[in-house]
Amino acid sequence: MVEEYGPAWQPGPFERGTDGPHLILAGVDGSPSALRAGAYAAGLARRQRSRLVIVYVLAPSVWTGMSPSLLAAAQEEAHDDMITELRRPIENLAEESNINVTFEIRRGDAYTELKRVAIDRQADLVVVGASDSAGHRLVGSVANRLVRAGLWPVTVVP
């Protein structure tokens, strides 16, 4: 699902020293660091006159497969609540900052989907929040995997 907010994006007049990113992608998941990453990306998009794509990935839990009916319904409801909570601030941000914001909702692995959107939309910069999970030190966080991919500059916001 893709939603557009704010004015249509147009490149500004050429100005020396402002040839920064044209499209900034921010991955959000509702965590405090991801929300800070979204705010940072929005400020950068406003200052650089860039388009902003905010991506929320619905990642199914491993427990969903064990009891498809009950857990899947509860997880789907939680995701719907998170999407509803994210929509209003994104709409407000687009209006207040006068920037074009695309809100995209994907399903699957967060790293895979963020990478796919960044490649498809030819992102110039990816902004994500740092993970607080101790398990990510062993497996690797989404931010770490995006940095290691080496396809675009990645800013990790604490």
Layout of strands and helices, then pairs:
Blueprint lengths: L1 E4 L17 E6 L3 H17 L2 E8 L9 H30 L3 E7 L2 H11 L4 E5 L6 H4 L2 H8 L4 E4 L1
Parallel strand pairs: 2-3, 2-5, 3-4, 5-6
Antiparallel strand pairs: 1-4
Structure description:
The protein contains five helices and six strands; from the N terminus they run E-E-H-E-H-E-H-E-H-H-E. It is globular and about 50 Å long. Helix 3 (110-120) packs across helix 5. The chain has helices at residues 32-48, 68-97, 110-120, 136-139, 142-149, and strands spanning 2-5, 23-28, 51-58, 101-107, 125-129, 154-157. Helix content is 44%, strand content 22%. Residues 134-139 have low confidence and may be disordered. By secondary structure, the chain is of the alpha/beta class.
Q: Tally the beta strands.
A: 6
The outline comes out as globular
The portion of residues forming beta strands comes to 15-25%
Mind telling me the C-alpha Rg?
16 Å
Strand order of the largest sheet: 1-4-3-2-5-6
Decide which structural class fits the backbone: alpha/beta
Report the average pLDDT across residues.
82
Helix tally equals 5
Largest sheet: 6 strands, mixed
Distance between the termini: 28 Å
Helical coverage, percent range: 40-55%
| H/E series | EEHEHEHEHHE
